[in-house]
Design a protein that fits this description.
Blueprint lengths: L8 E5 L4 H14 L5 E5 L14 H6 L2 E3 L5 E3 L1 H10 L3 H7 L2 H21 L17
Parallel strand pairs: 1-2
Antiparallel strand pairs: 1-3, 3-4
Helix pairs in contact: 3-4
């Protein structure tokens, strides 16, 4: 029988994104001693997207998380799980209300689509750049 990991969610985040890092650093402080969140930076050269089962591009296009049972969640649901892990269950419950959930999903979709532009990381075309090989 496999033991359940000691964390509630593993978040795959872009450590090269200044906006993303503000949120991640806040969550790390809030998680503190709880250690209910496993933080995985997909921007470091050592990260292997194959361990998640998604391409680097897919991981860069939307935030993803992995639950202890191995299933993946993405988008706003990742943030719900992160904030529940640090004790904001009531806020998470409100975020699931139909009207609010739709607004949050739309807002996150717009942010994710424009994240590179908003953080000043666009070159000529604003798209995810392929990873450089470690070799």
């Amino acid at each position: 029988m496999n033991a359940q990991p000691p964390w509630d969610i593993e978040v795959f985040y872009d450590g090269a994104c200044p906006l993303c890092m503000r949120e991640i650093n806040m969550l790390k402080r809030m998680d503190g001693q709880r250690q209910r969140i496993r933080f995985t930076d997909i921007a470091v050269p050592e990260f292997e997207p194959d361990t998640v089962g998604l391409s680097f591009t897919a991981l860069m296009e939307r935030i993803h998380g992995r639950l202890p049972n191995g299933s993946l969640v993405e988008g706003v649901e990742v943030f719900r799980r992160l904030y529940a892990a640090v004790g904001f269950e009531k806020l998470v419950a409100v975020s699931r209300w139909p009207g609010i959930a739709s607004i949050l999903d739309l807002a996150y979709t717009l942010f994710a689509k424009n994240r590179l532009r908003l953080t000043g990381r666009c070159t000529d075309a604003c798209e995810v750049q392929p990873r450089k090989s470690l070799a």
